[in-house]
Amino acid sequence: MRITIVGLGAIGALLAARLGAAGFQVAALARGATLEAVQRDGVELLEGDARRTQHIVVSDDPAALPPADLVIIALKGPALAAVADRLVPLWADGACVMPAMNGVPWWLMHTAAAPGLAMDLRSVDPQGRIAAALPIAQVLGCVVHLAASCPRPGQVRLNFGRKLIIGEPAGGNSARLERAAAALESAGFELARSTDIRSDIWYKLWGNMTTNPISALTGAACDRILDDDLVRDFMARAMGEAAEIGRRIGCPIAQSAEDRIDLTRQLGAFKTSMLQDAEAGRPLELDALVGAVREIGEHVGVATPNIDALLGLTRLMGRQRGLYP
């Protein structure tokens, strides 16, 4: 299998290093300092005390990359809409495309389990550029359950976890899902094949749609956030709103908010991806994690006062610091 990875941030670089080491033909799209570092030195992967380097084909021009069977998009949410039309050469020949991204994907409400719920998510695809560039028929859903970071361009550290969940947007199984799963398993990832990837996406979102923006607002790691009773209560109320939205769109959650918060607490003192972005001066993935939930809530008639407050406060902070448009 020939694999192209779009974006060599933490998740993209981890995938590139592991898949390349497993013997796959790996190419990647990158830019700036990351492009220069990987062209010169390859991708360096740090796992515990182990350190290894993987050389891959890398370019800043999609048309310059070799054909691929699988394209993995590992961009931040705000970036994909801006470059989607430029990426079309990567999948123009029918490649399977797997976005490995946080939050609500643009296609979620076009494969709704209940009739009459289809909608375009303008919070994540404002001008419809992603939908126009990438047919849902070529998309494979993915949920990332691991944490990695980039100490410097071209270098990635696996912090914890190896789990990936993949599935067809419309449910069921397929040959392409099995091929992608087998490739990722051979690269050392723990793979779960889902027959309801929409619910898996919503469940992960339900767990991190509060901790991410709260960490960016406060600068606190997750242990400090969860140790504050007032913050925990606020999180539980916002999660209750999101759980009701999930129930109405065919993504029910059986777990209580308190149990999910306790599960997060077991991960200890870690910085969320949004806190890392805020500290590095990078754009915030606020729309995919919070804005889309509010938008869907309006569509299905669920009031979201706590989600609204979280979105408004984080959006204002982001605008003050030049991290949100």
Question: What are the main properties of this structure?
Answer:
Rossmann fold; 2 domains; 325 residues; five-stranded mixed sheet; five-stranded parallel sheet; 44% helix; alpha/beta; 14 helices; 10 strands; N-(1-d-carboxylethyl)-l-norvaline Dehydrogenase, domain 2
Could you walk me through the main structural features you see in this protein, from its secondary elements to its overall organization?
This protein is an alpha/beta fold and 325 residues long. The protein has 2 domains: 2-195, NAD(P)-binding Rossmann-like Domain (Rossmann fold), CATH 3.40.50; 201-320, Orthogonal Bundle (N-(1-d-carboxylethyl)-l-norvaline Dehydrogenase, domain 2), CATH 1.10.1040.10. The protein is 44% helix and 19% strand. It contains 14 helices and 10 strands. The strands form 2 sheets. It has a 5-stranded parallel beta sheet with strand order 5-2-1-6-7, with helices on one face. Strands 3, 4, 8, 9 and 10 form a 5-stranded mixed beta sheet that branches. A hairpin with a 2-residue loop joins strand 8 (141-152) and strand 9. Helix 7 (197-208) packs antiparallel against helix 10 (229-248), helix 8 crosses helix 14 and helix 13 runs antiparallel to helix 14 (305-320). The longest helix has 20 residues, at 229-248. The radius of gyration is 19 Å and the shape is globular. The mean pLDDT is 95.
In short:
The chain has 14 helices and 10 strands. The protein is α/β, with parallel strands linked by helices and 325 residues long.
